[in-house]
Amino acid sequence: MVKFVKQTAVGREKGWGQLVKLLEDRIRQDGQVLGADVLKVDSFLNHQIDPDLMAALGAEFHARFKDVDITKILTVESSGIAPALAAGMAFHKPVVFARKHKSLTLKDHLYTAEVYSFTKKTANTIAISTKFLGPNDRVLIIDDFLANGQAVEGLIDIIGQAQAHLEGVGVVIEKSFQKGRALLDQRHVHVEALARIAAFENGQVVFEQD
Ligand code: 5GP
Asked: Would residue 70 count as lying in a domain?
């Protein structure tokens, strides 16, 4: 992990492509392709978490969105929290995560949206307290994966309810062969994906070529 940070510091001087390569190498080394469209990365991203990698990813998001004047970072629990917090530490801005509830009867003082979970195949209501988002907020959404875009669409819905402004979306891993990226491009949303997966072929990850 120490080695990673040293390499990343070199990457900072040489350009950020270095970090993308390190992330891709880590995905190749430790990621596991499950079926046709799921990548398991629970050894470093969303179960066990590599803090040095997170710090480097947070710095990368900061570099990519440095010209955007944001007030808040938004994500969805639980797997979005680590990269969102890392970005929050780089931006020095608060991080708000939407909570997931199977059924939500009490909706007072909450913004809510329905989100269909790609991995769990169930619908969840996600909720954010009205205390933490309002018309003066300029929001950066951060998540671990972009697949069909449901989680991000739910957050965009909530940003609309709060009359806040969406400034961009940063994801650690985009599966470009699923429809989420195209949906966001159609809406002219500024999307930054650190690793972009073109396909899974014979259990191997194929990345988009720059
Ligand atoms: P979407 O809403 O874009 O369809 O899916 C995004 C959410 O589903 C992410 O927040 C992530 O937690 C989960 N997800 C989507 N695809 C994958 C995947 O291939 N692997 C893992 N581990 N999670 C995924």
From this structure: yes
